[in-house]
Specification:
The protein is built from five helices and four strands. By secondary structure, the protein is an alpha+beta fold. About 10% of the residues are buried.
Length: about 150
């Protein structure tokens, strides 16, 4: 699907605040609410809009300790990769996991309450996963930019 300029504006507005009504969006886009509704439905059908979520303030829910864990597998066999990815996907503490190039195989983004909770997670959950060779943890000092808005 090719996005026109109106689709792009609509997606921008939805990324900023998806709780806006079709009437509010229609006013911003100079369209009828029905036209906005139809565009949104089409974007959903095409899989461009995957889902709507509530973004939480991690500090207010006691998850302000952010860890980036770099991880190496023992071997890069298809079985090891598949097993690790299946197991790490089950860990609710891991918000994001990326298979990457470079010195490490994966980067995990983990939200915790504090260092003690992270240590417990490492000892009891993460390092018990199959095929992990080594880990390297980096802790967030300050947040410079954090957005989910994709510029179109």
């Amino acid at each position: 699907m090719t996005l026109d300029s109106t689709d792009k504006k609509l997606l921008h507005f939805l990324q900023e605040d998806s709780t806006q009504t079709t009437k509010q969006l229609a006013l911003k886009l100079s369209l009828s609410p029905t036209a906005v509704h139809e565009r949104i439905k089409k974007l959903q059908r095409e899989g461009i809009i995957e889902k709507y979520v509530a973004m939480l303030n991690r500090n207010k829910v006691q998850k302000g300790f952010v860890v980036f864990c770099h991880l190496k597998l023992v071997q890069h066999t298809k079985e090891n990769v598949t097993t690790f990815e299946r197991e790490v996907a089950k860990l609710p503490e891991v918000l994001e996991c990326y298979h990457v190039s470079g010195d490490y195989d994966y980067i995990l983004k983990i939200y915790m309450t504090n260092m003690e909770e992270y240590r417990e997670f490492m000892v009891t959950k993460l390092t018990t996963l199959h095929h992990i060779g080594s880990t390297h943890s980096t802790f967030m000092i300050g947040e410079v930019k954090n957005t989910n808005v994709i510029a179109l």
